[in-house]
Design brief:
It is a single chain. The chain has 300 residues and is an alpha/beta fold. 34% of the residues lie in helices and 17% in strands. The protein has nine helices and nine strands. The strands form two sheets. Strands 5-4-3-6-7-9-8 form a seven-stranded mixed beta sheet, sandwiched between helices. The chain is globular and about 55 Å long. It starts with 21 loop residues before the first helix and ends in a 10-residue tail after the last strand.
Length: 300
Amino acid sequence: MKPDQSASTLHPRNLHRAGYDFAVLMQTHPALAAYVRPNAYGDASIDFSQPKAVKALNQALLKQYYGVAVWDIPADYLCPPIPGRADYVHYLADLLGDQGPQVRLLDIGTGANLVYPLIAAHTYGWQCVGVDIDANALRNAQNIIDENGLQPQLCVRQQSNPACMFKGVILPGELFTLTMCNPPFHASAAEAQAGSQRKWRGLGKPPAHTLNFGGQSNELVYTGGEAAFLTSMIHESKQFAHQCVWFTTLVSKASNLSLVYRALKRVQAVHVTTVEMAQGQKQSRFVAWSFQALTAKKRV
């Protein structure tokens, strides 16, 4: 298998650093074969602009590397790229150090795909709770849990108040080691569509009227955009300062980092750290903060 230059920038423990071995993946998930074709360089690949092809690739990856035999999502729901999602989990493990399976993870906005908890549970043995406001998404996520026999390691909860992130889903007296979140980063449906069209052009395709990689409005859009979501999350996290060791969230737009740091200063976070990540030319990052006196022991 020829290494993928974009994959080589992934976390050192990321299982996808060497790229996709389509021969192995097609053996694992034969349905993938219908979408595999030589790319412009003669290497096996898929058309990443085709949702069915991306879903088949995800099904193969989750089965081959994460022990998820049955995985599916409803039409038009977010179908996330697995390597980048795995990177977030690995860098969270570095943040925590060697704490083992006693780690409890809360995934805010877990979606119908449940990908972060699936990766975290299989790779590190963490106990995971996925939260979402979308009842249909949670029904699908629960089905993934049931079909793969992942209870009680994984469970899902519905957030009944769309204005809240932690209230109502963190139970009184309940403790979490960390939270994670991939927040909606568009302020409107029109902005989401424009962003999707840029992705289509990046794939060398004419702009389409469908969202690349899918996504429901609550997965992609929040009034005020990413900045408003992050500000609200940070403000609310203060109320759970003693129930969560680390709060973390992806920050899609680097221009929002200064706003995030100001918000964290206002709530008097004790520890704040930013972890930079990359997948090829795509740069991403997450910010982590804690209100507790602690020293993070790095994993090697």
